[in-house]
User: Fold this.
Amino acid sequence: MIMIIFASPTEYGTFLGVVRYTMQSMTLKSNKTTLVIISLLLLLTGFFLFHIQKSSVSIVTQENVLTDESDDQGGMIIEGSPLQIEYLRKQDYPGSEFVVEQTLSPGSNYERYIISYRSEGLKQYALLTVPNGEPPENGWPAIVFNHGYISPSVYKTTERYIAYTDGFSRNGYVLLKPDYRGHANSEGVARGGYSNSDYIIDVLNAYSSLAKYPIVNPDKIGMWGHSMGGWITQRAMVINTDIKAGVIWAGVVGGYDDLLEIWHTRNRRVSTRVPTPSPNAISSRRRWRTDLVETYGLPVDNQEFWNSISSVAYLKDMGGPIQLHHATGDDSVEYELSERLFESLEILDNGSELYIYQDDDHNLTTNFGPAMTRSIEFFDRYLK
Assistant:
């Protein structure tokens, strides 16, 4: 039995026309003529089959589907997904020299600037603080400071996190707080922190730019993150293993499978307490999760893919420990995410720490002082 599959309705209609005309001719012509027509029909069939095969090969190539071997290993993986850790490790993050765009009023013992650097050809802005005085022999230790989610439409480089940045800046660190693309004056589109790797790419280029800064010791750079900035921090640390230490407050941490499970539980819990948001709000907030599940299946069905995009699967490659801070009263990010991540970090025995604050909020308002002291001491231990 021969099955012919047509690439389009137009090709199918054309082929039917040829068959119909041939059958009519066979009833009118001699046997010799019929044999000639049948031969032509076979040639046309071969042409269609060749054309279809060629089209099918081009479709597979465009979608970059891996060989059947990957299907045997737990499910389809799209080669070079920008969420996959190995893919991100293979990319270049050269950064650039800093350009001082504006000199701001100084802090208590440090200078403040708005600077720009380059990320994927886009001009990105950031807050830079520099301690007063002569730098140490090999340069100042430094911290890349990753802020949490703030609506790009209201974000400003010099607003929010003032007390947080001051805590590190006045204790002998060069600090760089990237805006992320699409925020304030930074070029590009703000597409969010979870459905793509844009902000992580911007932060990795910020790290490289900071490492080039003449007064910074490139071997003594850590990373701090809050909320969504914690997600960026943990992923950056498994992509660039030169990052020496990380501190995360109230972080969206763990793997994508953790987010699916815990956020699904939260959505069910919240839905019993508050009115259901508008359909547009639900679509905007959950679309990336739905897209991943529809494309790759649930983690239980395709663990290979979910591991490939999970930073937790690569924790053993990190260049330093992580200190986690979270509060049980956090109504924005579940503290269980930090507990889960710490369980994985404990196995490594690499000096990572976890601090849980009872009944405090997402910003650790009540315990800000102790959390900041612990964060500075942790960075001092690994960066000074």
